[in-house]
Each structure stands twice: as structure tokens, then as C-alpha cells.
Design a protein that fits this description.
heterodimer, A: alpha+beta, Alpha-Beta Plaits, 2 domains, 5-stranded antiparallel β-sheet, 4-stranded antiparallel β-sheet, B: Rossmann fold, Rossmann fold, 22 helices, 22 strands, binds thiamine diphosphate, binds magnesium ion, transferase (chain B), thiamine pyrophosphate binding (chain B), magnesium (chain B)
Chain lengths: 163, 574
């Protein structure tokens, strides 16, 4: 099963490489990885999506917790959560395709954020499934480039991942 | 307020931390630190002849004393030479602090002379590592390094120190940090009481229980508590190779150690058990054999300080995260005053175990007769008697290591010092040095093989310089015996590169360093040689003992089998 694990990580040099290294060293898989500082400058928040059975996921969270730079973590998929990813897509937009791109973007509530005579750059946010669907819808028109942030997520309701 | 350079802070910190001795080798990036060591006399520096030996010596000291071993090396090749020893300590959860010189900060990333990203290189084999970014951080970072190395599940910590951090011209305030806090690191000590109670209930009802304990008992200093618990319950106990001595081996309840070359009765008992109480052990593949056939009828209680060791290879029915000593104490207090309902079935269980025991008794190997070549096993037994079972024993890796573990019986923890997890040839001799320097009154014996010894024999020079009187017992089978054994069993005796056709005359080699060496070729020469070797505890003596090169280590678990699937000799199997 797919899991989304969010980690509060010491904002120290080398901390990220310990997390990434752990996954390769122990043969765990990383589907997406997203990392940025939080409101507390001493902490980064890192979110990985990974796939594995319960035994593997248990090992992943235990080994992550063992890293000294990992302050706290949560497996968001264990509860209700919000999952978002942002994607920027450059699509060929010539002739009739120009309208087609715009229409499809509207259906997905995506925005055109940059325009040239031949290219639209579209921004879309959503869960990974929605982004995949958008890529599929655009593919016949002609995708030139895709940039995805990887999944970020947060628990629903009052649940917090803080110190 | 005291102003010190980074280098002087390091020397001062080591003194304040109570470090008496460090092992190292100098070089450009570490020279400020070496100069600071020169100008003080609280910390003794032992100059090894290869950085790997520094790590093994520090490791040997750590295993014997339970305190972190300390290593100092220079950048680049100095640090990379230390990697094998760091990995060795990591696999066996040994506390160690490795201080590595590094090129000056402004050169980092430029492929400067002797620059290696040692934090990167060692990342998978350390508990944690630090890079010093400012000299004023040195006291706190070093304190954190020692704290991390020695607490929780111990392990090696690397501290990378760019040369400009130790420059004599830059001075900063030095205060010894008595305590440090690391917000993300709070090792659990007490186990979950509900889980412990559940475990005790199972123990009091079990019909065929076995304790299976590991290095966690030794590093957790829990052997007295364990002995108390095991005696109260009357259960059999087997330990891992790393757990040897955690329970006295001569005791009736001890089944010896288990696993690939473990005792017949230990492996049989594990296979037939209905309850396994694992404490400070990690269900390593050299113990479990094929996990899908592992102990089919057993429920498993697993106590470990490291949650990631629990249910890693074998699923635990009752996981308990906690320090061995604290959990055992709690178990004892729960048992007190309670009736066990399993006395009768325990009696039956012991009958089976005694049956397995007597089945193999006296059949383990064929001793030599006068005039014949010696068997490696009987050499270990003779050394055991010569040292009254009280020596510190280190080993290298191979058949001699397994024989040492099988035939030297340890009554105490911290006495059997071996590279279990990584299986590092070359470990034994420098480890013995590290033990002997801190325990000068004790006999320290290194059982080695002619293959392993040649990996670290340059340390004879260190022993000469610092007058280190270890006893080296070379079980010379003129071959990489363990490799040859596997080739006999799995490759139709095609001995690809497993024999040493150009062995040196070890006695001459040893004599070149001014030490005593005795060659022993037959049965009759052994006793006088041992008498001579152990006459003076502080004299280095090398015994070059020729042993039967065709001997195999048995029992040996059959690959992919269960615990009870064993070869018992060249012709018998279970
Ligand atoms: C550094 C290292 N290289 C290779 C091995 C693989 N290995 C395991 S045992 C062994 C043979 C050891 O020979 P020796 O020291 O003579 O011991 P013996 O088995 O003959 O008693 C080898 C090569 C190892 N464990 N460590
Ligand atoms: Mg040999």
C-alpha cells in the first residue's frame, strides 16, 4: 500500500542525505520526496510517499525515527489527511489545440500561468491521482515538459505534527 | 573564563570526559590536535601502525570496559583506513568516538589534498556524525558525540574536524559541558509495563520455554539481573555469539550459543520451544537460518532497546522496547510471589534437552594422540585450562573464531571479544592490544589464524613501542580454513585461493620484533609451550600452533533449513 510519511527534520547540513541514504541502504522505496523549511527555522518538513506492506512500513518508520536528525514523524495515511501536489506542465498550444488546452485546464481547475504563441504553461494542484489524470488528458495534445513537487500533506482536523 | 584553541579544547575535553587513552595516527589535517596532545599529559596517545588497528583497539577496549573507545585520525587516507573498524563497531553496537581531521573549511569541496567526504563515506555505518563548523562548538559537539555513542543502542560516532577549526591562533571560551540534550534523541529505558506483564504471564505458563539473549545483555550491563531471572524460572538459556558470557556458560541451565555453529542442544531447544524470550538479540540470519522455518511452534517475546530490531526479520508476539536491565528487573518483581503453573512440563522439557545434550557429548571432535598433529579444538581447551577460564579472549575471523567460542567457556560478560556482525579478519590482534593496555593485570589472549593475523600483523611494532604483553595463539592450519570448509561442502573441494602457499616463518617474524615465539607442531609440544607462554602475564608471546588443516567446524546449520537442520560431522546430519 502507498503511505505518506511526513517528517520534522533538524535543519542541519547532511540531514537530508541521512534520510535519503536510509531508503537506499535498506532497500526501501521512495516514490516522491518533498522538503522545505517550516515556520521554525530550525526544522524542515519532509514528506515521502513510499509503497510497502505493513511490515516494511513499520521498519521504515522505525528506522527513520532512529535517525538522530529526525525529530518527529507521522504516517499521514493512518488517518484522515489532505494530500496535495503541485505540477507545472508545458503543453504545445497551436491552432485548435490552444482552446483544447484551456478547456481541459478549466475542467481540472488548473490555471494557465504563462503563454507564448506556441506554448501554454499550466499550473495544477491536487492529489497525485488528479495530477496523473491531467497528464493523461493532456498527453494526446502534446506535453513538452512536466515539473511536479512531489506530495505534501497534513492531517485533517486538530491533529498536529509539531514539537 | 578560559580561552583555548580548538585543538587544546579537544585535548582538554578528553581529559574532562575521563578519557585515559586514545588510539591514532597523525597527518596534516590532524597536526594541530597532535600538537595539543604533545603539550599535555592526561591523555595517553597510542600510536598504531595502521588506522584500522586504531579503531579495533579502541573497539576492544570498549567491549571490555563498556566505555567508548576513542580514535584520532587524519583526513583522507587516514579516515578511509578507519572505515572497516567503524563498520565493525557499528554492526556490534560498540560505543566509539572517531575524531577525523579534515582539510580546512575553505578547501572543502575542491578535491583538496587528502580530502575525503568521510561523513558521507561512513554515513551508513555510524550511529551519527558531526562536522565542526566553528571552533566554539567543539566542547558541545564532542559531548554529544560521547553521549550518543554510549547511550541507548551504542554505536560509533564520527566527528569531522576541518583543520582551521583547531588553529592555534583562534581561541574561544572553553567550558566542559556536563550535560547535553538532543531534542530528537530520548532513548527509552523502561519497557511498557502492560507488555512486560503479558510476557511474564506467558513465561509462567510456558511448557517449553527458552531464553535467547544477545549483546544487549553485555552492553546493557544486565548479566547479573539476567542470571537472577533465569535461575528463578529454571528455564534453559542460549546466547548469541555477541551475548556470550551474559549468562555463565558452565552453568547447567546454559545451552551454550546458538545459530550457524551453535550447540546442538541450543538449536534443537530453539526449534522445539513453545516460548522464546529474546532479550537484546536481533534475530540475525546467522542465528535464525531460514526465517520461514524458524521455530515453528514458538510464541516470541522480544525485548530490545532499539525498536527497529523488533519484528525486523521475525515477527514478535510481545514486543517490548526497553533497556534489558530495566525490563528484566521488572520481570523479576512481577514473578516474585507468583506460582508457576508449568513445573511439570518444565521437567519434561529438561528431559528432552538433557537427551540432546548427551546425544552429542564426547562426539564433538576426535582429540589427537601423542605424536600426532593437534586439533584446533583441543588447543582452545588447553588455553582455557592454562588461563583458568579467566582471560580476556579476542578472536579473528574464521574456524578458529568459532572453535574459540565453542571451547573456551565464559563465566563473565565483556570477556569474549569478537567481530560478530561484520566478521572482520584482522580484528583480533589490535582488539587484544586495546584490552591489554587497559587491563594490564589480566591475561589477554588473541586466537587468530595465519590468514587473519597477516591482515594486522604490523601492530607488533605498536606492541613493541608500548610494551603490550598480549598472548597470540595462531591456530595455523595453513589455509583460510573457513573458506576451505565452505569449498569442501559446496564446491566439491575446489579450493580456490583458500590456501596459503607462501606462509612466512612466523617465529622468525616475531623474533624480528624482539618477542618470544614458539612453534608447536605436535600434541606433545603443546603443554610446555603453554606453560612458557603464560609464565609472565606481561610478556608478548606468539604461539604458532600447527593444527589439522582438514578439520571442519560442526555443528553447522544446513543452508535454508530450520534451526534443527544441522551437519554434525563430515558424515552425520540431523
Ligand atoms: C576482511 C575479511 N576478508 C575476508 C573474509 C572472509 N573470510 C572469512 S573466514 C576467512 C578465512 C580466515 O582464515 P584464517 O584467519 O587462517 O582462519 P581459519 O578459518 O583458517 O581458522 C575468510 C577469508 C573476512 N571475514 N574478512
Ligand atoms: Mg587458517
Amino acid at each position: 500500500m502507498r503511505h505518506i510519511i511526513s517528517i520534522l527534520l533538524e535543519n542541519e547540513p547532511g540531514a537530508l542525505s541521512r534520510v535519503v541514504g536510509l531508503f537506499s541502504q535498506r532497500n526501501f522505496n521512495i516514490e516522491t520526496l518533498n522538503v522545505a523549511p517550516t515556520e521554525d527555522p530550525s526544522l524542515s518538513r519532509l514528506t515521502v510517499t513510499t509503497v510497502g506492506d505493513d511490515r516494511v512500513i513499520e521498519q521504515i518508520t522505525k528506522h527513520l525515527n532512529k535517525l538522530i536528525d529526525v525529530v518527529k514523524l507521522v504516517d499521514l495515511t493512518e488517518g484522515n489527511h489532505i494530500e496535495r501536489e503541485l505540477m507545472l506542465v508545458k503543453v504545445k498550444a497551436l491552432g485548435a489545440a490552444r482552446d483544447e488546452v484551456k478547456r481541459t485546464a478549466d475542467i481540472f481547475r488548473a490555471q494557465v500561468v504563462d503563454v507564448t504563441p506556441s506554448v501554454y504553461t499550466v499550473q495544477i494542484t491536487g492529489d497525485a491521482g488528479k495530477l496523473d489524470a491531467f497528464v493523461q488528458a493532456m498527453a494526446p495534445i502534446g506535453i513538452l515538459e512536466v515539473a511536479r513537487t512531489g506530495v505534501s500533506g497534513i492531517a485533517r482536523g486538530d491533529k498536529l505534527l509539531t514539537l | 573564563m578560559e580561552l583555548l584553541s580548538g585543538a587544546d579544547m579537544i585535548a582538554r575535553f578528553l581529559k574532562d570526559e575521563g578519557v585515559e587513552r586514545i588510539y591514532g595516527y597523525p597527518g596534516g589535517a590532524a597536526l594541530h590536535i597532535y600538537d595539543a596532545l604533545f603539550r599535555q599529559d592526561s591523555v595517553q596517545h597510542i600510536l598504531v601502525r595502521h588506522e584500522q588497528a586504531a579503531t579495533h583497539a579502541a573497539d576492544g577496549y570498549a567491549r571490555a570496559s563498556g566505555k567508548p573507545g576513542v580514535v584520532l585520525v587524519t583526513s583522507g587516507p587516514g579516515a578511509t583506513n578507519a572505515v572497516t573498524g567503524i563498520a565493525t563497531a557499528y554492526m556490534d553496537s560498540i560505543p566509539m568516538v572517531v575524531l577525523c581531521g579534515q582539510v580546512a573549511s575553505h578547501l572543502i569541496g575542491e578535491d583538496a589534498f587528502q580530502e575525503t567526504d568521510i561523513v558521507g563515506v561512513t554515513r551508513p555505518v555510524v550511529k551519527h556524525s558531526f562536522s565542526i563548523r566553528h571552533p566554539s562548538q567543539i566542547p558541545e559537539v564532542l559531548k554529544k558525540a560521547f553521549y550518543l555513542a554510549a547511550t541507548g543502542r551504542p554505536g560509533p560516532v564520527v566527528v569531522d574536524i576541518p583543520k582551521d577549526m583547531t588553529a592555534p591562533t583562534e581561541r574561544y571560551e572553553y567550558v566542559y559541558p556536563k550535560k547535553v540534550k538532543i531534542r530528537s534523541y530520548n532513548p527509552v529505558t523502561r519497557g511498557h509495563s502492560g507488555q512486560i506483564k503479558k510476557a511474564v504471564d506467558m513465561m509462567l505458563k510456558a511448557r517449553r520455554p527458552v531464553f535467547y539473549t544477545g549483546g544487549g545483555i553485555v552492553t546493557g550491563r544486565a548479566s547479573e539481573a539476567l542470571t537472577d531471572l533465569v535461575r528463578r524460572l529454571g528455564f534453559p538459556i542460549t546466547t548469541t555469539l555477541m551475548g556470550i558470557g551474559g549468562y555463565p556458560q558452565g552453568d547447567r541451565q546454559s545451552l551454550g550459543w546458538l545459530g550457524m555453529h551453535g550447540s546442538f542442544e541450543a538449536n534443537m531447544a530453539m526449534h522445539h520451544a513453545d516460548l522464546i524470550v529474546a532479550i537484546g538479540a536481533r534475530f540475525d540470519d546467522r542465528v535464525t537460518n531460514n526465517t520461514s522455518k524458524f521455530c515453528p511452534t514458538a510464541k516470541i517475546v522480544h525485548v530490545d532497546i532499539d525498536p527497529s530490531s523488533i519484528s525486523k526479520t521475525v515477527r514478535a508476539d510481545v514486543p517490548i522496547v526497553g533497556a534489558a536491565g530495566s525490563v528484566i528487573d521488572e520481570m523479576i518483581s512481577l514473578i516474585q510471589g507468583r506460582e508457576a503453573s508449568n513445573a511439570e512440563s518444565l521437567g519434561e522439557w529438561w528431559k528432552s534437552i538433557e537427551g540432546w545434550r548427551s546425544e552429542r557429548e564426547g562426539k564433538l571432535y576426535e582429540p589427537s594422540k601423542p605424536g600426532e598433529a593437534l586439533k584446533p579444538q583441543e588447543v582452545i581447551e588447553a588455553v582455557y585450562r592454562a588461563t583458568r577460564g579467566e582471560a580476556f579472549v579476542t578472536t579473528d575471523v574464521g574456524q578458529h573464531q568459532m572453535f574459540a567460542a565453542q571451547y573456551y567457556k565464559f563465566a563473565k560478560p565483556n570477556r569474549f571479544i569478537t567481530s560478530g556482525g561484520l566478521g572482520t579478519m584482522g580484528f583480533g590482534f589490535p582488539a587484544a592490544m586495546g584490552v591489554k593496555l587497559s587491563y594490564p593485570q589480566d591475561d589477554v589472549v588473541c586466537f587468530t589464524g595465519e590468514g587473519s593475523f597477516q591482515m594486522m600483523m604490523q601492530e607488533l611494532s605498536t606492541c613493541k613501542q608500548f610494551d603490550v604483553g598480549v598472548k597470540i595463539v595462531n591456530l595455523n592450519n595453513q589455509s583460510l580454513g573457513m573458506v576451505r570448509q565452505w569449498q569442501d561442502l559446496n564446491y566439491k573441494s575446489r579450493h580456490a585461493h583458500s590456501y596459503m602457499e607462501s606462509l612466512p616463518d612466523f617465529t622468525k617474524l616475531i623474533e624480528a620484533y624482539g618477542f618470544t615465539a614458539i612453534k608447536v607442531k605436535t600434541h606433545d609440544e603443546l603443554a610446555p609451550a603453554l606453560e612458557r607462554a603464560f609464565a609472565d602475564t606481561n610478556e608478548l608471546v606468539f604461539l604458532d600452533i600447527y593444527v589439522d588443516p582438514f578439520e571442519h567446524v560442526y555443528p553447522m546449520q544446513v543452508p535454508l533449513g530450520s534451526m534443527r537442520d544441522m551437519l554434525l560431522s563430515k558424515t552425520e546430519r540431523t
